[in-house]
Amino acid sequence: MTRFIIRLRAGVLFFVLILAAAPLWGASQETKVVSTEWLQKNLSQSDIRIVDMRNNVGDYWQNHIPGAVYMNPEVLRLADHGVPVKLMPVKALTVMLGEMGVDPKTMVLVYTEKGDFKAPYLVWALDFLGHERAVVMEGGFAKWQKEGLPVTQDYPKIVTKNYPLPKMLRREVRASLDEVKKVVASGGAVILDVRPVELYTGEKGSWKRKGHIKGSLSRFWGEDLTAEGMWKDKAEMKAAYEKLGVTPDKQIITSCGQGQMSAHTYFTLKYLLGYPKVRNYDGSFSEWSNIPDLPVETGMNP
């Protein structure tokens, strides 16, 4: 009888531990988007690295979520053979992650001011590394602050870690210039330009040539968000994409000016709507437009 009671207690304890861990497992395995409520409940988890990616470090100094480390959005990007603001070299990225106290098992939780492309860009970069545990806090710091949740001016105490170079990169999430050339020449994928429409049509823009990659479709990335920076209803978003011809059975390449806006649409299609074959072209129009023999169009596609 005594042995039975001991086993029973051990079983109950194990079950309680499973339940306690369930919210964290749920966030890392089932979704890439978490709520402010979820983070509040999991602030004490030691295997989460919260990353503040707001534009201005002064906002971070004023107040931030407890435990958050600041990362300027531009630190992720470098010139690649003269092409500006492409994803930084993988070796540099792994060193930076280690300095932030991140290893391959760490959950990286990213937030920005409200809801924009900076957080999904980091998640996409981590996807390229093969880092699976990365999530975006929906609604950003504005929602956290509006709900009266705890903030601080203290810096986090970080123990650096070793982030090893991945044995194999997930190239299926990143489109190269050569791959986009092949699509433009012979099809095989949908190129989706997510910049504001006036950049797509060529009415505005700072590049050497204005307009868009030949044959690409247009849908502004911000159309997927409410005014509060929350993602719109999934059915509504899916219907809008399918009306455009962007369907789950197709290869989708997202593009913008420099790979950040397109990372947001990559994230939306892949993780909100479940599209299995989505790649982000981080060279985007910045790279394409500067090569004279590559075709550029203006105006709207029919």
Describe this structure as you would to a colleague:
- With 302 residues, the protein is of the alpha/beta class.
- The protein has two domains: 31-167, 3-Layer(aba) Sandwich (Oxidized Rhodanese, domain 1), CATH 3.40.250; 174-297, 3-Layer(aba) Sandwich (Oxidized Rhodanese, domain 1), CATH 3.40.250.
- It contains eleven helices and 13 strands.
- It has helices spanning 2-30, 36-41, 57-62, 90-99, 118-129, 140-146, 177-186, 197-201, 234-244, 261-272, 284-288, and strands spanning 33-34, 48-52, 69-70, 77-80, 83-87, 107-111, 134-137, 190-193, 212-213, 217-218, 252-255, 278-280, 296-297.
- The termini are far apart.
Strand order of the largest sheet: 1-7-6-2-3
Q: What's the rounded overall pLDDT mean?
A: 91
Strand content: 5-15%
Judged by helices, strands and strand pairing, the structural class is: alpha/beta
CATH homologous superfamily assignment of the largest domain: Rhodanese-like domain
Tally of distinct domains: 2
Overall shape: globular
Largest sheet: 5 strands, parallel
Question: Which structural traits does this protein have?
Answer:
single chain; 302 residues; alpha/beta; Oxidized Rhodanese, domain 1; 5-stranded parallel β-sheet; 4-stranded parallel β-sheet; 11 helices; 37% helix; globular; disordered N terminus
Topology:
Layout: H1 2-30, E1 33-34, H2 36-41, E2 48-52, H3 57-62, E3 69-70, E4 77-80, E5 83-87, H4 90-99, E6 107-111, H5 118-129, E7 134-137, H6 140-146, H7 177-186, E8 190-193, H8 197-201, E9 212-213, E10 217-218, H9 234-244, E11 252-255, H10 261-272, E12 278-280, H11 284-288, E13 296-297
Parallel strand pairs: 1-7, 2-3, 2-6, 6-7, 8-10, 8-11, 11-12
Antiparallel strand pairs: 4-5, 9-13
Helix pairs in contact: 5-10
